[in-house]
From TrEMBL, chains A, B:
Homodimer. It catalyses: tRNA(Asp) + L-aspartate + ATP = L-aspartyl-tRNA(Asp) + AMP + diphosphate. It comes from Dokdonella fugitiva. Residues 145-558 form the Aminoacyl-transfer RNA synthetases class-II family profile domain. This is Aspartate--tRNA ligase.
Length: 592, 592
């Protein structure tokens, strides 16, 4: 239907006749001359309709004059040099003098135009118009190129792309499953996979050695801005490997794809940090290292002070008192400080103590703080020294359990870094390693797995693990980029007895383990090789590469935070007969 | 953990120390010497354990003697030239003299061994052992290479790989949907996509120009041997194209992947055949052209004969009387002929008339047939001549409606071709085109779409289509290979008014159309470009390439014909509380 793409018409074609297809981006009728910007996925070219063309046809101008926004056109014409060069577009040195303008499909008046961004609900409802916007085309293309680059790299290295099922077994562990009633088995259900975790482990036991899949995963969780019901991960697994085999391999992969897609050189090697160090310095297991701010633990200094919140937590076995220096923060207004307190409260803070260093040379006199009166001169001086605070800085304090203090002070660190313009440009990748094996869940009064129940502990002996469960370290690892956990993985348990021991520690009894994970326990008995792997969040990496905060910008048809597709109207009611076929009924709402 | 792969140890490594990981495929204790065949995904290499190694360590022989089938081992040793060359394996000129044998994971006694095929149920239950079998590894690899070759070809040509949702809107059209209750929307459901059809059309309207996806699709249909609940298709769509643009492009793609994966040159160009011709000559819209047998229509000859079944259908407006010559069929026993009759009956035959040509020179005297007495000499002679039957052949006759006669005689043709050894080796691809737009559904008393309701008719005018719906031809096309429809596609409707007209002809009222497909009808109003595409069945193409009848052999974790995963036990019951969370209950079985 066409000879060239609009966006690729160039000076080499001057004098040639071309046929182009595209949308009318802009049409301008300048009395006796008509200009149309014709747009396809490659870009825009200017079409000119003159009173009569070279062969004396006058119809072209009339056809051009009738063109409206987003009409779908086929245009034949002759390429010529443009007089007024438009440096903003790739085709700006040429234009096409139309000899024929064919209306392929008329567009009705638009809810919004390709150059506008009318708000997300409208964009999602008319996603086909939204995606025509060059900005969206670019972001989607970044994702496409990311996935291509990943596949190319993996294929060249012998990783085998193997599909695993979407209709799988319900295994209530971790997030909530999506359920699918089974028509042929009344009262039974399939579940959509939260990840292909067990299948990829089974593939290693089945002799596939190096596996990958760009896999769709499903979690029926409350949606946050950066979550979708369904998401895409690059899922990888390796047989006969150690942590470093996996890490070194995928670190190189990530470097290559950033080079190919973004033209960026990431650090080689990536920085490495234990979980303990990341929590200590940044209050986060996914620290954004573009932000230079670091915590200072001050429990030692305030153990004996007269501020009860400090002394309580400084002397508590699981407590933390941490200070964070905010360079230039002495300028904060009372309102700003209150806002930071409110922000910290969202992450669990009961209060946020603060101190302004108005003149570092003046000791107590130079410090403005509601808590100064509870601290003696030596303590004040020690804090100022330890945090490195200078004249004009502020210091914020968090005191709570180790975890809570780390959480809210970590959140505060991120906000302060942005507000104070301290976050550097660029890319800060790192590995976080040596995670705890278990976290104690105070509500459920049992251990929960920090990664997942298939992660191997650093110790190889079940008795050792049982004896030291509280402090056991796992063989899990996360790849972190600019404060985002973009990949997470581990070496897996490959012996049946160790897997049973871990299930046991997690409060999953032998019977329950057999019912849910019997096939895994069986498979581990038949010579399962040592194996490990990792999974990367494609949506998040694509969003980072595309420079957008929202993963919805790199998903063609995303759902809203209320789990709806505004374009198609999913989810929707279905007829009773259809429910009966799969042996279910809608429960009375009042029974909920 | 290893320096080389087992299957790749070769003479270049002689004298070198290697470390290998793998499974003990066979272990033979020859009194004072032990041989282990160590297997990984690349193949097998022979390990030798001698009474003491070069450094005088005696432990190796003891370790080797303790090895059992499928134990997972790490072996270090020195490569040496093998005395008794084993030409059957790639590594057959070398062996590895072990200096260390490390048991990584002991295997319990196996339900079956990697060299056995113990029946499909056991294989599927222990899929991890089944997939270790070299035969399965090869078949899975064929699939992996197919998908790789397709992606490479598509990526090089600028096709954009875009993911579409798995949680979509229920649109009861075509096959039965899988439903997923929506937790956040009580009483509402998502559906799993039967194909990304509407999303890919929307992507064309969204300006993506050339799309592909290796897409998972779901149909809750009765499972036949060659169907799965979920299956994989290569889904493609093109903007601004005609049928030939699509066909020529993908035909070249299929030729390239067969060349790359199988080393086979497919015909260039593919044969082309209309639906009408395929039905006339082969009684099938997916004829296997490796089978040379063709139909002969004989209604003209038997219109006035005395065999009522023939005359009835020969004079019926929608009837067909068709003959099929079976070369050498005069040898069939009465039992064989009865069996063919039973086979035809499965496809709708009420009876199967037959005729043996025992001596073609003798006219009526040379023919043995229960129906000969109803046919005069001229008719007999005309039939023999038209079918080209010679001495020793048989002729089978089908008389019924055009569709039924075609169906059962087409099925008979396939069976006869196999039984008589007439099916040639090799690959017989073709395009089938010019399908009817609609089929009349006698039960529902309405038209149904032969492809799907979004397929464009050959006529561009709604009034014309309405007036001639019964004989309307669509712009659909199928790619057929060796009797399998491996791909199907069409040019789509790109105008809203035509789409509404087709919905109307299919008995989908304006209100229903708006409720189910409103977003498509809307999208068509905003300058939708002409577009079309195709989808290929990856599972089937992989099975053909792998030389297996069953697509389950090229799916890592398939379900049985009763829709179960024998390994994981899906589907399964789930606790009431989990159902309550998604606002459903299991219906009483008695109420079904």
């Amino acid at each position: 239907m066409r000879t060239h793409y609009c966006g690729l018409v160039d000076e080499a074609l001057i004098g040639r006749t071309v046929t182009l297809c595209g949308w009318a981006d802009v049409a301008r009728d300048l009395g006796g001359l008509c200009f149309i910007d014709l747009r396809d996925h490659e870009g825009i070219v200017q079409i000119v309709a003159e009173p009569s063309d070279a062969e004396g046809n006058a119809g072209v101008l009339a056809a051009a004059a009738a063109v409206g926004y987003e009409d779908c056109l086929r245009v034949t014409g002759v390429v010529r040099k443009r007089e007024a060069i438009n440096a903003k577009i790739r085709t700006g040195r040429v234009e096409v003098v139309a000899t024929r303008i064919e209306l392929l499909n008329k567009a009705e008046p638009l809810p919004f135009h390709a150059h506008e961004n009318p708000g997300e609900d409208i964009r999602l409802k008319y996603r086909y118009l939204d995606l025509r916007r060059p900005e969206m085309q670019q972001m989607m293309r970044t994702r496409i190129r990311l996935v291509q680059a990943l596949r190319r790299w993996l294929d060249e290295r012998g990783f085998q792309d193997i599909e695993t099922p979407i209709l799988t077994k319900a295994t209530p562990e971790g997030a909530r499953d999506f359920l699918v009633p089974a028509r042929m088995h009344p009262g039974e259900f399939y579940a959509l996979p939260q990840s292909p975790q067990l299948f990829k482990q089974i593939l290693m036991m089945a002799g596939f050695d190096r596996y990958y899949q760009i896999a769709r995963c499903f979690r029926d969780e409350a949606l946050r801005a950066d979550r979708q019901l369904e998401f895409t991960q690059l899922d990888m697994e390796f047989a006969w490997v150690s942590e470093r085999d996996v890490q070194d391999t995928v670190e190189e992969m990530i470097r290559v794809v950033f080079r190919e897609v973004k033209g960026v050189e990431l650090a080689d090697p990536f920085l490495r940090m234990t979980y303990a160090e990341a929590m200590r310095r940044y209050g986060s297991d996914k620290p954004d290292l573009r932000n230079p701010m670091e915590f200072t633990d001050v429990a030692e200094f305030v153990k004996g002070c007269e501020f009860k919140v400090f002394t309580d937590w400084a002397n508590h076995a699981d407590g933390r008192v941490v200070a964070l220096r905010a360079p230039g923060g002495a300028q904060f207004s009372r309102k700003q400080i209150d806002d930071y307190g409110a922000h910290a409260a969202k992450y669990g803070a009961k209060g946020l103590a603060w101190m302004k260093v108005e003149d570092a040379a003046k000791g107590r006199e130079g410090i403005h703080s509601p808590i100064a009166k509870f601290l003696d001169d030596a303590t004040l001086a020690a804090i100022v020294k330890a945090t490195g605070a200078r004249t004009g800085d502020a210091i914020f304090f968090g005191a709570a359990t180790y975890k809570t203090a780390s959480d809210f002070m970590g959140a505060l660190r991120l906000k302060l870094g942005k507000d104070l313009g301290l976050v550097a440009e660029g890319w800060a990748p790192l590995w976080v390693t040596d995670f705890p094996m278990f976290e104690w869940d105070d509500e459920e009064k049992r251990y929960v797995a920090l990664h997942h129940p298939f992660t191997a502990p650093a110790v190889d002996d079940e008795a050792d693990l049982r004896a030291n469960a509280k402090i056991a370290v796992s063989r899990g690892y996360d790849m972190v980029l600019n404060g985002n956990e973009i990949g997470g993985g581990s070496i897996r348990i490959h012996r049946s007895s160790m897997q049973s021991a871990v299930f046991d520690l997690l409060g999953i009894g032998a019977e329950e383990a057999q019912a849910k994970f019997g096939f895994l326990l069986d498979a581990l008995k038949y010579g399962a090789p040592p194996h490990g792997g990792i999974a990367f969040g494609i949506d998040r990496i694509a969003a980072l590469m595309a420079g957008t905060e929202s993963i919805r910008d790199v998903i063609a048809f995303p759902k809203t935070t209320s789990a709806q597709c505004l374009m198609t109207g999913a989810p929707s009611p279905v007829p009773e007969a259809q429910l009966a076929e799969v042996h279910i009924r809608v429960a009375e709402r009042k029974a909920e």
